[in-house]
Amino acid sequence: MEKVLKPVKIIIVAGRVKRITRKYPEEPPLLTSEFRGLIRIDPAKCTGCGACVRACPPNALDIVDMGDKIVIKYFIGRCIYCWRCVDICPVKAIKGTREFELATDNIDDLYHSVIHSKTRCVTCNRGFATIRLTRWVIENSPISEEYVHKCPSCRRSDFVKTLSRRKGGV
Amino acid sequence: MRYIDNYVKLFERYGGKTIAEKDLVQAIIPVENLVEVSSRIFNEMGAMYRTCIGMDERPLNGLFSIIHVFTDNRAGLYISVKTYLDPDKPIAPSISKEIPAAEWCELETRDLLGIEFEGVREGRLVLPDWWPRDIYPLRKDVEYSFRPTPQVHYAKFVKPVETGIVPLGPYHPALHEPEYFELYVEGEKIVDVRYRGFHVHRGIEKLAESRMSYQQVCFLAERICGICGFEHSTCYALAVEKAGKLEVPERAQFIRGVVLEIERIHSHLLWLGVIFHLLGYDTGFMHTWRIREKVMYLAELLTGSRKTYGINIIGGVRKDVSEEKKQKVIENLAELDKEFAQVIDIALSVPQVKKRLSGTGVLSKKDALKLCVEGPVARASGLNVDARRDLPYASYKYVYFKIPVYTEGDCLARALVRIDEIRESINIIQQLLDTMPKGPISLDTYEIPEGRVGIQVVEAPRGGNVHYVVTGRGRPYRWRIRAPTYSNIPALRVMLKDQPLADAPLIIASIDPCFSCTDRILVLSKKP
Question: Please, are residues B206 and B520 in contact by the beta-carbon 8 Å criterion?
């Protein structure tokens, strides 16, 4: 008899645990302190170096060259919330948050961008890196001040010129 | 050592060159001896066939190659047998007559690399029917961004006489992923099955080989499967670390071990819920999933995400386990153990559960051995295989655990294997947390040289994942993934034979199929 009635015991279990689903959104969702959600880029700190773009596995972060501006573009639709960018950012401009309610009816809400102005090369007057990045480089390595304002190709040609002069060439 | 010598002798006898290093024996064999050598490794040495890999090495040495990977479970060895093929007309002999488990991956290699196999069946396996005939996507001269124009070439459909056809899928309420089974029935009895899958093949191997970096691929590998993703990323990371000979900190390996077992508990609870649901015992489904919620919570606590944890990187892990978290995990697991025992005891006493599970979908030991099935399916058919013990990786050599083996080979045995494994996993996590060493959790700097090979098998909840990595410049040169369902689906044909039609969804679900693992889904197309 006991064997036949055993399946019914589940009622006792159900009575003990009661309701376990939460009345979300009235009640707070079940989140731990470790949850990884949306990232926020602090435009005041970002230097536009592009380290996060190189680390991002799904290409949610993108660096776009728009003439005299450099734009760091974050598309939430591709983000996998791995926070590699948070780990990698050299100036700690990216902060991870616990936000996850991201549904929207406007696709523009899914794009966040940080716009940087380009610095100009002192010799050829071409834009190459962001102004903030050059400033950051100077702060961290003062000896670079001489050539940081030159674009990579001018730097290269200058270097070759110096070398050839030292060798007693032209 | 004795085992390695045996293999070296065998390869020497057939004119092969052998490099033995730690647990990997690599041999290069002349193409005419491939079948003989493979069949000797499989039948005489008793090694298990894992997968084959086709490789386009034309940019390196101007040749194609094909590699068969075996594992010797008694000796804990990986055996790779490689053959070079002619670049203009790559033809290799098929070993699928001797080793039936090799059929699928040979078909896949033909589809993706255009290597012909003598004696393997016609028809496509992976590529859709509209894909152009002479374009092989995994060849290095095909660009990643290449999009062909569809060509209509429908496969010839042969209608069998005197049997009815019942299509199951691609969209079916009992199966939650796109796959297509064609069941040939006589009355209520299934007489044969045809499977057409790979509807969601997106070529992530190509993606990793052409535009991602080593670190990024860890996150890509995690997305192969929604349920056993961490096994895939661990497997990839371990394979690369093996190839680059990196000494990963012990603590990182222990954390990996803990999370791997958390994932196993979660996957098995999910499967039990699904199987109860398919049996019509929805109460059991609700209660196992209620218990599963605790595991999901623990996963988030340990890694930061409920699924696709994203803590694996090459050289270690990204998140440490503090004392406080440890305590919480142990508390929660003790509670889970108690509740699980109670619920599963009640669920197994329900008459329809036992009745429908026992005796359905029997896979005999002989067939299981022949088809090289993996994981709980193999262990339910009396094969005592488990990569955690046979080829120890991560931190499994530091823990003691039992491997449940049943000999009945039916659905009930497969369920019981999984129930026992949940208990063992709880035990393993407790041992790992108790003995976790102190130290760093990841390597700061490392270097991965080009042209090295790393093979790794990781025991996922469904069986062994195999990842084969050849290192290249900044990214893998070749990355081959073999999910466990890949070798379990061919066994369904044996299981479904002579079974009533009503049991078909149950039997298909009993191998815990994961079609997106098998197909390697990932939608990552950037519109041109």
Answer: no
